[in-house]
Amino acid sequence: MNYLAELLASGLAVGAVYGLIAMSFAIIYKSTGLLNFAQGEMGMIIAYVAWSISTSVDGNPFIVALGSIGFAVLFALAVERIVIRPMMSEPILSQIMVTIGLSVIFRSAIILIWDGLPHNMAIASGNQLVDLGGVRVRAAQIAVLVALFAAIAGMWAFFRYSRFGVAMRAVASDDATAQLMGVSSGKVQMAAWAAAAVLSGVAGVLFAIAYELSPSLYALGLKAFPATILGGLDAVIGSAVGGLIIGVTENLVGGYISSGLKEVAGFVIIILILMVRPYGLFGEKRIERL
Amino acid sequence: MAGPVAPAGRTRIAPPLLEIRNAQIIYDNAVEAVRDVSLSVPEGSVVALLGSNGAGKSTLLKAVTGTLHLEEGVLTKGSVHFAGEDIGHARTERIVGNGMVLVPEGRRLFANLTVDENLTMGAHLKSTAEMKRLKQMVMELFPRLAERRSQISGYLSGGEQQMVAVGRALMAEPRLLALDEPSLGLAPLIIDSIYQTIGRMRREMNMTIFLVEQNASRAMEIADYVYIMENGRIVLDGPAEKMRTNLDVQEYYLGFSGGDGARKSFRDVKHYKRRKRWLS
Amino acid sequence: MRSGYYKETIVEHINLTDSTLQRAWIGIGLLLVIAAPFHFEFYGLSLITLMMITAIGAMGLNVLTGWTGLISLGQTAFMVLGAYAYAISTESWGWPPLLGFVLAGIVPAIASVIVGVPSLRLTGLYLAITTLASAFIVNHLVLEFDGLTNGSSGIFVNRPVIFGYAFDTDAKFYYLTAGFGILTILACLNLRRSRIGRALIAIRDNDNAARVMGIDLRAYKLYAFVASSFIVGISGALYGIFLSFVTVDGFPFLLAIEALAILIVGGMGSIAGAILGAVFLVGLPEVTSFVFSWMGSSAQSLLSTSAHEIKGLLYGLIIILFLRLQPHGLMGLWQDARRTWTLWPLKY
Amino acid sequence: DQGVTDTEILLGEVEPLTGPPGLLGVAHNLGVRLALAEVNAKGGIGGRQLRLIAEDDGYVTSRTIQSLRKLIGVDKVFALTSLSGSGQALASMPIIKQSGIPAMVPIGPLPPLYEPPSDNIFVVGQSYTEGMHQLALYLAKEYPGAKWGIILQDDDYGKSLGEGIEQAREEADINVVFETEYARGQKDFASEMLRVKDAGVEVLIAGGIISENIAMVKEAEKLGITPVIATFWPGRVPEVLKAIGPASDGIYGVDYVAPIQSEAGQAFLELARKYLTEDEVARVNRYTMTGYSSTRALIEAMKGCADDLTWACTIEKLETNPPIDTGVMDPIGFGPDNRFSNSGVTIMRADYETLSFAPVGE
Amino acid sequence: MTQKLLQLRDVTKSFGGIQAVGGVTLDVNRGEIVSVIGPNGAGKTTLFNLISGVLPVSSGSISIEGQDLARVPGHRYVRLGIGRTFQNLALFKHGTVVDNILVGRHWRMKTSVLEAALHFGRARREEIAHRQKVEEIIDFLEIEHIRDKVVGTLSYGQQKRVELGRALATDPKVLLLDEIVAGMNQEETEDIARFILDIRDELDIAILLIEHDMHLVMDISDRVHALNFGRTITEGRPQEVQSHPGVIEAYLGHKTEDAAPQDARAAGGLA
Ligand SMILES: Nc1ncnc2c1ncn2[C@@H]1O[C@H](COP(=O)(O)OP(=O)(O)OP(=O)(O)O)[C@@H](O)[C@H]1O
Ligand SMILES: Nc1ncnc2c1ncn2[C@@H]1O[C@H](COP(=O)(O)OP(=O)(O)OP(=O)(O)O)[C@@H](O)[C@H]1O
Ligand SMILES: [Mg+2]
Ligand SMILES: [Mg+2]
Fold this sequence. Notes:
Oligomer: heteropentamer
Distance between the termini of chain D: 48 Å
Protein name (chain B): ATP-binding cassette domain-containing protein
Order of helices and strands of chain B: EEEHEEHEHHHHEHEHEEHH
Keywords (chain B): Amino-acid transport, ATP-binding, Nucleotide-binding, Transport
Radius of gyration of chain D: 20 Å
Domain ABC transporter (chain B): 18-256
CATH class of the largest domain in chain B: Alpha Beta
Bound molecules: adenosine-5'-triphosphate, magnesium ion
CATH superfamily of the largest domain in chain B: P-loop containing nucleotide triphosphate hydrolases
Largest interface: B-E, 54 and 53 residues
InterPro entries (chain B): AAA+_ATPase, ABC_transporter-like_ATP-bd, ABC_transporter-like_CS, BCAA_Transport_ATP-bd_LivF, P-loop_NTPase
Number of helices of chain B: 10
Low-confidence stretches of chain D: none
Largest sheet of chain B: 6 strands, mixed
Shape of chain D: elongated
Mean pLDDT of chain D: 89
Organism (chain B): Pseudooceanicola pacificus
Order of helices and strands of chain D: EHEHEHEHEHEHEHEHEHEHHHHEE
């Protein structure tokens, strides 16, 4: 029983990391129709910046949090403005390709600016172990779950109550026409990129605290992408659920069957679910009628 | 070319609200879709633009609303002024912010948004209270939409979609409303009410209307001034009353045969290469 | 200056070339291909060989993604299968290489049906994920069935001997690859102008309308899968021979992204685009190296430990800049150039 | 032969210099450069200075092959000082054999590289299998009757380790209660470690490379279990200990290279400080030592051929020279039918305090 | 031989809660032009979608030349002689006009993948023969000047003609035209009217027409079928339907003894 509980706990913890990054994929997709292949890399860079801040201010968690969120926003805005915006009216595949180019740049930049080594990132008591009724987890793992649920609540309220949420969807649906309504699709895109960067930054930082900080952190993006698909590309909250499902499945398969099947199991689940629901669990169907 | 003047009773010597001068538009660096077109739309008037398929009408509207570049089109010569400002190369949102709204060709609804959300988008720049009032008005104009309010708009019938497209533009209460074939695919009854509404908006709100329409008889009924476009040029223009008496307009746009004032039947159309007098 | 040729018969419309000039260009191209080994040495030749193998794979992907609009991130799976089918049949079982190549096409083609059938309802990125998933599963299976595949240790592959002729030198292997390349180009061009190619394009542009025109969507999507993975499988076998060693590590996931990148950079859906894109992306590291060496040796030593990271940076930067300036890819560039050429000196 | 002018001798190598594997490649590269700088400072070989061209393959096999062709065919180097990782080296064998260029393989020595011996490929170090074999034997003796858990990577590296353990099991009594393979690139080891805990493992073979071992040990710490943990040499770098934190204290390791903290290690650092920049010295690790040592062996052979600098001569000298002792590992020597230095290994333990490993029993 | 070509019996289609088509019974005979009219959202296009196999019927039956279509898969309808155009344009945007029309010939071609890849013998002969046919259609519809243009760059009205061409290329027995003249001016509408009549007379193809242009409907149809809320209001000769009170109330909006009062007004302006 405790074994299962511990498997579930660690599954949820890592799933929450996937979920946060998956949400950032979905936010950008939902509001601009673009898939940002550099999302994992952006999370990684933000984690490294947080690490740099923490080593220079002696780990004051508030300064680290403020600093890295601030950086995440500025970073995202800069990327959006300099690289993505000029491509806005170009074919979507070209835009996606640009994000692939970005991911190459970011990966190189990490090693150029910092180094290729794994690091132990100890911010505040994120590393501390907490005992939850016999199940031991790290504080950062709890934090990541809390962050995920906060993000879910925030996104739900935003898309439910804000007119800006409708505008975001309109831009994704047809940005030229959205402009005809007076929507500044540039602003929408900026907001989406900033929000996505903050979410994936939070995921990156907390993952780095609970596990490790290394230049292969970007691979989280490769995990989160399937999670987004599982939840539905344009389903922001659904993606979070997708992340949790994948995290838990992997751990259950690893715990009861074999580790070698972990990765494969996640993908098998996705194939099965997509066969029944071709637009993911919560995704919107492509609307077509003649 | 004289161009239309402000409607009688409103004698102001202001420049027209929308003015296009000697515009040339080229697609893909190769296709010249509009050449040397000048046209003006005075404040408070209704100006109609007629012309056959591929004449360049929609292209002109795209230029006016700054959406040309999305299709690799460029305004290579000439200028477009709206409310005194040169908008030839301005961004769409800015043009819309200044008070011009377009009902684009092909409806262009946000397919996965509901009818209601589509209308909300129309009033994007308005306050929430305003939006509610305008939505009320649109729903009255198109009762059909009230029934379909929370349906995903992509599944609507063609005509219903057209209603949403027109309604969405009305939601913006623009200073100048540009309509690309508003009656396309609509039932006669609905066309009546759209034209009534356009007329009312113009009267009550002094809205200016720039109308591209294939339903020439309808357009001429409501328009003050008419331009006719062929092959990328303006070939004929004049006040609506005068245009109605033009023999070519009667034959090619209104379907009367030989000037005797009777509509000829589609069954009797003969095929021979006719020559329009204005294409001499 | 030419401004297009007037066509009088229908045959002229379906011919691949429409002018003597074009035929002359093709002739020159062929001569260049034949002459390459006499001019390039060891390294240059292997670079060209790699470009050709990549181009074959890209043309294969183009059938599925460019024509039919089905985005795949699983092409590495079919490459792996092709490479293993060839390696196992020729090296472990001692079958003749020609048969090995046939298997290298057929095995992935069959596998693609298995991937394709459950994916028929999927579109866009949703399909991309299931193909990605199949790539992971294939890798897992290859490692699992180590009795057949030798697991993670891999299989050595010798240069083939076909009808007693040994393609053992680099130049000979290059000609073999070039032969496959030309066959692939011809097959793709022919497919494109046939009813099959048109059906695929129709599905991409509007699948509902395609169905009303009598196109069986399921069948044709599977055709696309099969044709694409057949070609990709062949390129996998060639790649295995090129590396002389087949393991799953030799086909990293990155290859799938790179294949997609080639199509985008080349211009989606165009055969010439796929080829140009392959040349561009395979050659790009050379270019960055060149730019780097051009920056001078002092700069190089200054950045001794990070020189290679800077190359990576440059690589990404060039891709972004290229797409910024030429969003329609190399084919777009080519068309612009040609239009300017045919229309010059008139502007429009 | 090629690569030799009146003033210069060109050497080449391929290794991962970018991305995470760059940790290994860059360090190795520094070792090679150190060896070259040392001879160059003493006037080079027969008055010729040595120069190195390093190509980056990012650990991708096709790029290794491409780079080798470039080094051999375009740059025309005289000899090769590395063929990148084990899989890459295996794939390179046909080209190397065909060209006849002398090549040193100091990273990832796998048996197929030297069994049967190829004329011109010289493998320096010890195989993973033998290293693991020794480590397992030692642990079996030290912890008799303990329950073992084994976590291995699903590639040739993991397979070699597995074979080493198998060999040890034939000779000693090892009670394995849990064994699993994970897919390369895995980051989260929670379920594996839970099973380790569940099975009551007392000796854990953490068969990852770098990140994986860090993850496993941290996970054990989280679960509150303290098995004896054994890691393998690729991860025997100070950064790993630092990244794991205090929980890394007492981890076993095995290596054929002396720890930095040892006398020989310190002497090596001293040498490095003489020829490398401060920035570079900071990146020195065990791969620097293997790179240095194997290159020294090559250089000694070349020196022996100073007047007749040919491939044949160099190969012959490599074969006949007495073993070269660099201090940081067993003397390196080959023989007529031997292309493998077969260096002896030492079992060591980590000390978190000094972020280093020390041979057991010291 | 029966004159009945297309028969609909009690056809129903529901989407979730909405019944878009509710029990429609309709026949099209050989050589007939039948129009379907009705307010927006009455279910006309949905009816076409059912007849052409885009959507499955919820209940009721459709048959062509006596063959029931219930078990026929969507892509085989065209083989039975059903061709159509789409209200909202459903062309293959990246293809040229010729390409688009050639797709209409698809089902008549038999080349296999292998033959196609080799482009030899039958593949080549077949291709030439069908291109010939396409050229005839292009000639017939007078669109030579745009034959090599990429369809996505054509104007709305031009695209509608290409659609008509593509539908004709399928050699239909009955041709379904969904608002084919929407977006066309008088002159172009006249052209299309002539095409429709010619198609019927020369090619012997029956035509089922959805149209909101009452002049056209009244002038060229043999019979008119009026729908509202998916149900039939009335069916009959054009004049009868036009003066049916249900039709006037739901659709036309005014009594139309005279077909076009607004034109009369316009004409009055001349005097
Ligand atoms: N995106 C484009 N690229 C290239 N050419 C285009 C493009 N859009 C339109 N054209 C060409 O420009 C010309 C004018 O097209 P436009 O759409 O403005 O015509 P229109 O007057 O609106 O016709 P319709 O009444 O049929 O809508 C046409 O010949 C068309 O082929
Ligand atoms: N796929 C669908 N899902 C949900 N509702 C649909 C769907 N297709 C059609 N409808 C609904 O069915 C009704 C009939 O639509 P249809 O398109 O048949 O009307 P129509 O008679 O062609 O109208 P119009 O003259 O405006 O084209 C509409 O109210 C529409 O909203
Ligand atoms: Mg138009
Ligand atoms: Mg309809």
